[in-house]
Amino acid sequence: MRKTVVRVVTLLGGLFFVLEFMLPAELRRPGAEQPYFTNPLSPWLNLATDLVIVLGTMAFLLGPINLVRSHLGNLFRGQRGAVESAVFLLFLVLGLGLAGLKEFPDLKRGLGLAAADSALQSGYNLLFYGLINAFGATSMALLAFYLVSAAYRSFRFQSLEAGVMMITAVVVLLGLVPLGTFLTGWLPTEFQLPTWAAWIFAVPNSAVQRAVVIGAFAGAFAAGLRLWLGVGQKTE
């Protein structure tokens, strides 16, 4: 029953936004001052949008709440990863506290921490601009390492596709560094490696990126349509 109610509300909500967008704002006959049709859904659009924002905010809070419950369970039960859970909870409390004191000065004055404004600002900068940036750079470096290792395993002439990928990668890499100009600088411009690298970026790479974006949007549309219509979901 609960899933049925959720489906009905989702269907009606999606139908409201679809019809409000597709129906014209108003229709007039030639020479008439008053329209004979006005979109009856438009006056309710702001209210529906505010409701979606409220629901989205509530759904956004489910993620942190579930994370806190999961890490608290690991910490209290002493399971594997309890130390990491304690570190996560510690920095979560620190982040929320420093951000709240920074965004709500009245709260800071009410707690008697107005005199420690510089120390709080330093802690905020250290946490959000120091540690997070350092962790982000480290994560990107590790990701780049794994990407290079995966590319090394893939760039072998084990198949036609792998051979084309390896040749393309070599052309692009050489075309983006001075070595490519040094090796092919004596050739006409249209046969130089930088020219080929620019062509690969402008034509095949752009086509592939557009195809990926189209496929992603098509998948998102299909997933949204299935969710809206309740297709492929079990009923209670």
Write out the strand line-up for the largest beta sheet, numbering strands in chain order. 1-2
| Low-confidence runs of at least 5 consecutive residues | none
- DSSP helix count? 9
Mean pLDDT across the residues is 81
Question: What can you see in these coordinates?
Answer:
The chain is an all-alpha fold and 236 residues long. The chain folds into three domains: 1-28 and 35-79; 81-154, no CATH class; 157-229, no CATH class. Helices cover 76% and strands 2% of the residues. It is built from nine helices and two strands. It has a two-stranded antiparallel sheet with strand order 1-2. It starts with a helix and ends in a 7-residue tail after the last helix. The model has no long low-confidence stretch (mean pLDDT 81).
Brief sketch in words of this structure:
The chain has 236 residues and is mainly α. It has helices at 2-22, 45-77, 82-103, 105-110, 117-154, 160-175, 178-184, 193-202, 204-229, and strands at 26-27, 37-38.
Topology of this structure?
Layout: H1 2-22, E1 26-27, E2 37-38, H2 45-77, H3 82-103, H4 105-110, H5 117-154, H6 160-175, H7 178-184, H8 193-202, H9 204-229
Antiparallel strand pairs: 1-2
Helix pairs in contact: 2-3, 3-5, 6-7, 6-8, 8-9
State the main characteristics.
236 residues; mainly alpha; 3 domains; two-stranded antiparallel sheet; 9 helices
